[in-house]
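Handout for the seminar on molecular recognition.
Each group receives one record of this type.
Step one: identify the two inputs.
Step two: read the structure output and locate the region that could contact nicotinamide-adenine-dinucleotide.
Step three: write two sentences on what you found, then compare them with the reference statements printed after the record.
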Amino acid sequence: MSEARTHNVLILPGDGIGTEIVAEAERVLLAVAEKYDISLQLSHALVGGSAIDATGSPLPEETLTQAKAADAILLGAVGGHKWDGLEMAKRPEKGLLGLRSNLELFANLRPAILFPQLASASTLKPEVVSGLDLLIVRELTGGIYFGQPRGERINDQGEREGFNTYIYNETEIRRIGRAAFEAARKRNKRLCSVDKANVLEVTVLWRNIMNELANEYPDVELSHMYVDNAAMQLVRAPKQFDVMVTGNMFGDILSDCAAMLTGSIGMLPSASLNAAGKGMYEPIHGSAPDIAGKGIANPLATIMSVAMMLRYSLNESAAADAIEAAVSKVLDQGYRTADIVAEGDQSVSTREMGDAVVAAL
Ligand code: NAD
């Protein structure tokens, strides 16, 4: 039973299949809240293409105000062919980037979970990935993607050269480190920090600060790995990892690699957190214009994003566990949407999958 605090959750369905999958996730959230006596206040707002159509902006002022006031945000997906012709600054995706920067969501949590029932969906051997459950914590607002100076210039030899700056300060490293140690605490208490400390000074500092932080988290076992080895280990024996923490660029690459271990884009949730633990939760996939409106999208990534929200922003771990157990149960029962169905099997609709999860709860 949780304390009787009301959690203020903003729901942003977005575009395409976003509205379909978020509707199911919202039903699951309400069902688990009732079961665990969690007090919720839900509000809804526009973001992305639907916001452009209604207001001219992918991130209307009102949406941003509501987002700042919320304890957590559940997002579907944004984008679609209708808005593809717009200039970069006015595209639906700017709504997402605007939320991330305005709310300072610097910690990106990307789990790679492979339910044993879906082991055949992976391109790796079932015994290598079956039951995989790892979490990559990626720094999202710093590192080489943002470092200054950057650009292209003519060097002393009269040749064109391109350059970027890989820079992290102590504060940035410490805050992503804390987010990762805290996440490890909520899981199996093993954290692997990924760097390139044999070559890059910035990651020597990264490693030193992770070691300093480890003193504050004696219950978490910290290890270090070079990024090239980490890439190799992810495909060789991914189940050795519990939580991995790394910078923006290494995290970008490793998290996509880890996602592909599971082979099912419709199953993977994500979270982006700020220093206060406020977060935006969303499936890793996009708005899937090719199947939008057909009622066949897989809602499980969004439903598991709700579980992450309960765990990481709302401190309702029991409810989070219950959702994950319910998802596992419906997979055991043989429910599959079209994207994860095995050949010859009958698939269920988005709505039927939502019904099944609610029933399993
Ligand atoms: P996508 O993830 O939308 O779709 C890729 C493929 O996976 C498609 O075949 C789609 O049908 C399938 N798919 C995705 N989610 C699914 C689900 N839940 N169930 C079943 N099948 C699913 O990527 P895309 O096609 O490259 O992009 C489409 C639009 O989404 C673009 O406008 C893109 O900019 C946007 N996008 C948004 C986000 C986001 O909102 N976070 C992320 C990625 C792409």
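Reference statements: The first helix runs from residue 18 to 35. The mean pLDDT is 94.
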